[in-house]
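RECORD TYPE: inverse folding
INPUT: C-alpha cells
STRUCTURE:
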C-alpha cells in the first residue's frame, strides 16, 4: 500500500512537471500549507513561468524584479529563503560543446511538496476543475533493440521519456525531462520527429540533449515536418560533407 502511494505521488509530481496539472493553480491551493508567504508563492510562480513557458532556466535578479513590485534586495531575500526551506535546488551543468558551466533552478522539490499535500487532500484535485490524467507517467526504461523499433512504440502511445532513457542507458535528469516536455508542449514538435532527431544523434555519435535540440531547430528552420522529410534532409546534408 505504501509503495502504491509513492507511485501515485511520483505520477502526480510528473504531472506537475510536464503541465498535465496547472502549476500556478496548484501552488495557489497549497502554498499556505507549505508555510509560504504570498510573496514567496508569487516568486515561485514567476520561476515556473520562466522555466516552463520561456525556457529561461536561471532568470537574473533584474529579470525577476522587472515583473515584481519589490526591490532587488527583497528578490534576493525571497530566493534565499525559498532555497533554504527546500523549495528548489540550484543545479550546475556544463555545455558539452563549449565547456561553459551554467546554473539552473531545479523545481522538482516544489512539485514533490505540492503533490504530497494534494494526495493528503484529494479534494484539491477536483477543486482545480480537471481530472488528473497522466500523459507520460512511466519512469521504467523499455526493452528494445534500437531506435527504429521505437517509432511504432510512440505511435502506440508508449512513453517517449523511456525511449530516451533506454538510448542514454540511464535515468533522465529533471532538466532533461523538462527539455522533452518543452519540445512537445511549448515548441510543438511531434513525438515522431523528436524520435527521428534522437536517431540522428545516435547515428552521428553525438548523443546529448543539446545536439538533439540543435537538430530539431535546424529542421524547423527548413520547414521539416515529417519523419520522411527529416530522413531526406539528413541524407542530403551528409551527402554534402
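DESIGNED SEQUENCE:
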Amino acid at each position: 500500500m505504501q509503495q502504491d502511494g509513492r507511485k501515485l505521488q511520483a505520477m502526480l509530481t510528473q504531472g506537475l512537471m510536464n503541465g498535465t496539472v496547472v502549476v500556478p493553480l496548484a501552488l495557489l491551493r497549497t502554498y499556505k500549507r507549505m508555510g509560504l508567504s504570498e510573496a514567496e508563492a508569487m516568486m515561485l510562480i514567476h520561476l515556473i513561468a520562466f522555466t516552463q513557458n520561456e525556457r529561461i532556466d536561471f532568470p537574473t535578479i533584474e529579470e525577476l524584479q522587472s515583473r515584481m513590485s519589490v526591490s532587488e534586495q527583497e528578490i534576493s531575500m525571497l530566493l534565499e529563503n525559498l532555497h533554504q526551506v527546500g523549495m528548489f535546488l540550484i543545479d550546475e551543468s556544463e555545455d558539452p560543446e563549449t565547456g561553459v558551466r551554467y546554473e539552473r533552478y531545479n523545481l522538482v522539490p516544489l512539485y514533490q511538496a505540492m503533490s504530497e499535500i494534494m494526495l493528503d487532500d484529494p479534494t484539491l484535485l477536483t477543486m482545480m476543475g480537471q481530472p488528473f490524467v497522466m500523459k507520460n507517467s512511466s519512469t521504467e526504461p523499455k526493452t528494445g533493440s534500437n531506435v527504429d523499433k521505437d517509432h511504432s512504440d510512440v505511435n502506440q502511445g508508449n512513453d517517449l521519456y523511456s525511449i530516451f532513457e533506454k538510448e542514454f542507458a540511464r535515468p533522465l535528469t529533471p532538466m532533461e525531462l523538462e527539455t522533452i516536455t518543452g519540445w512537445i508542449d511549448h515548441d510543438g514538435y511531434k513525438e515522431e520527429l523528436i524520435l527521428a532527431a534522437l536517431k540522428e544523434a545516435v547515428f552521428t555519435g553525438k548523443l546529448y540533449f543539446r545536439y538533439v535540440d540543435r537538430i530539431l531547430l535546424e529542421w524547423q528552420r527548413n520547414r521539416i515536418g515529417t519523419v520522411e522529410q527529416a530522413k531526406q534532409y539528413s541524407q542530403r546534408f551528409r551527402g554534402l560533407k
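NOTES: Residues 21 and 89 are 21 Å apart (CA to CA).
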